[in-house]
Amino acid sequence: MRELNKPILENPIFVQGLPGFGNVGRIATHLLIKFCEAKLFAELYSPTFPDYVSVSSKGICNLPRYEFYSAPIENNSFIIMTGETQPSFEDVVAHYQVCGEILEFIEKQGCNFIVTIGGVPLNGEKAQIYVAATSPKLVAEFVEKGAERYGKGKIVGGTGLTLALAKERGTDGICILGATTGIKADKGAGFSTFKFLMKALGKEIKEGL
What pLDDT is attached to residue 124? Predict the structure, then answer.
């Protein structure tokens, strides 16, 4: 973990969005970063990430990493984490290790609530927002805010594992899942999940963002 600076955080909420089905989580967190004008403050590097580097438009090589951004919101702060990759889905140990490192870091920042964002296969004609959580009470709370309860089995990768490991560590949280075909990056589903998150936090987002 590389800490670039020490932001002032008030009751921070952790929001995680990674590449996955329809790239919903990554799109939603990028919208959140832009909306909040969040600032980069830490980076996580891991030998479990793929063995390639990304090259910028200026020809500069960069290791794959997770980026942590901070932003103030009313009565709280956000810690927003995103990245362009995940450990191999075949390397279960690596996923547990990386998710554990993430949780250890955000706990040190004072986080006691997390939100993970991802995509699920579209079922039927109408796009939906689904939610899973660390307790029945939280599921009911976010269903009342307009989501459908997700009860279809599995959430793969860091989107599900970070939430489940947080539960084992005594931290509450939710997973917001946007329904998508998953064939390509789904900007519509990404925006819908972002919009639902902000609505659930009491901040309405207009379509023209």
Answer: 65
